[in-house]
Amino acid sequence: MELIISPDPASASRRAAALIAALVREKPDAVLGLATGSTPLRLYQELIRMHRAEGLDFSKVRTFNLDEYLGLGPEHPASYRHFMRTNFFDHIGVDPTQTHIPSGLVNGHVVPAECARYEELIRSAGGIDLQILGIGSDGHIGFNEPGSSLASRTRIKTLTKRTREDNARFFSSPDDVPHHVLTMGIGTIMESRTVLLLAFGESKASAIAGAVEGPITSSNPASILQMHQETKFLVDEGAASKLERSDYYRWVYDNKPAWQRVEGDR
Ligand code: F6R
């Protein structure tokens, strides 16, 4: 696990983009796990820029998103399918048939079947090479709210009141935020070969301090990443502001051997 503190969200996002670009250049059919929300937007903009200006080729990449709201179809402006299309997929030349998001239009007993189908799709793609994560102010990753089993797989979850409030900005009215979602489980996320968790702003500072320096607990689902060997937390000063060992994390980064650096990762 590595903690990298950047002066601002833009430089943290450039670091994340450099790491993803290095993977895609080395493995053109890489399997990327993707997140939605405000946090990865700058990262997606930087990858779009690299595609246009540097020819970064996404044509063979395969993608799996973390989650989707139940009840929202792909054309709904707040659905995560719509979010991904407009903010990323439409601009990078990825094959749309290779972009996967759980269906928000399943109901009743079809829900477990959709979750099992999603898990099987990830497995048959060979697993996720690199998973992008944001973090909720309550420590959730994907939509695995506090109390989620740390071994969970893709399934239906009920959003907390706080997450519905946090996400109300994407909907015309707070009451429109669905109560239920399908989300990759924590066990699913933990099988990704590499994890990049991005967090920006003071509203994420407690969740980050708990995840990185607190005990491993389902009360802060992101804390399970302490058990993942290839996880980088890419945070800005605000999100780092409650870390007790921030001087040490900066010291580690500044003294990294040259061979461990990724081009552009500065
Ligand atoms: C999104 C997701 C969530 C968000 C988290 C932070 O696909 O799975 O875990 O990453 O809610 O959201 P933002 O970035 O909007 O603060």
Overall description:
By secondary structure, the chain is of the alpha/beta class. It has helices at 9-26, 41-54, 80-87, 110-124, 161-167, 186-190, 205-213, 237-240, 246-254; strands at 2-6, 31-34, 62-65, 67-69, 99-100, 130-133, 155-158, 180-183, 194-199, 231-236. The protein has nine helices and ten strands. The strands form two sheets. The protein has a seven-stranded parallel beta sheet with strand order 1-10-9-6-2-3-5, with helices on both faces. The protein has a three-stranded antiparallel beta sheet with strand order 4-8-7. Helix 1 (9-26) crosses helix 2 (41-54). The mean pLDDT is 96. The structure holds fructose -6-phosphate (F6R). Fructose -6-phosphate (F6R) binds at residues 35-39, 66-67, 134-136, 140-143.
Distance between the termini: 18 Å
Low-confidence stretches: none
Average residue pLDDT: 96
Please state the oligomeric state of the protein chains shown. single chain
Compact description:
This protein has helices at residues 9-26, 41-54, 80-87, 110-124, 161-167, 186-190, 205-213, 237-240, 246-254; strands spanning 2-6, 31-34, 62-65, 67-69, 99-100, 130-133, 155-158, 180-183, 194-199, 231-236. The chain has 266 residues and is of the alpha/beta class.
Task: Explain the layout of strands and helices.
Elements (H helix, E strand, L loop, with lengths): L1 E5 L2 H18 L4 E4 L6 H14 L7 E4 L1 E3 L10 H8 L11 E2 L9 H15 L5 E4 L21 E4 L2 H7 L12 E4 L2 H5 L3 E6 L5 H9 L17 E6 H4 L5 H9 L12
Parallel strand pairs: 1-10, 2-3, 2-6, 3-5, 6-9, 9-10
Antiparallel strand pairs: 4-8, 7-8
Helix pairs in contact: 1-2
